[in-house]
Amino acid sequence: MSLLTEGRRRPATSDLVKIRRSAAADAGGASRSVNAVRPRLLVTMGDPSGIGPEVVLKACAVRKLRERFSIRVVGRRCALEQWSALFGIPLEVELIDPLEDATEATEFSPGASTPEGAGEALACIKAAAEMCLSGAADAMVTAPVSKVAMASRGIDFPGHTEYLARLTGASEYVMTFVVGGKRVALVTTHLSIADLPAAITRSLVLGKIRVLERGLREWFEVTDPRIAVTGLNPHAGEGGMFGNEETIAIAPAIADAVAMGIRAEGPFPADSIYCGLGGTDGPGAAFDAVLAMYHDQATIAAKLWGFSEGVNVTLGLPIVRTSADHGTAFGLAGRGEADPGSIIAAVTLAGEIAEVRARANRSESVKPGRW
Question: Cα–Cα distance between 242 and 220 in angstroms, integer?
Answer without folding.
Answer: 36
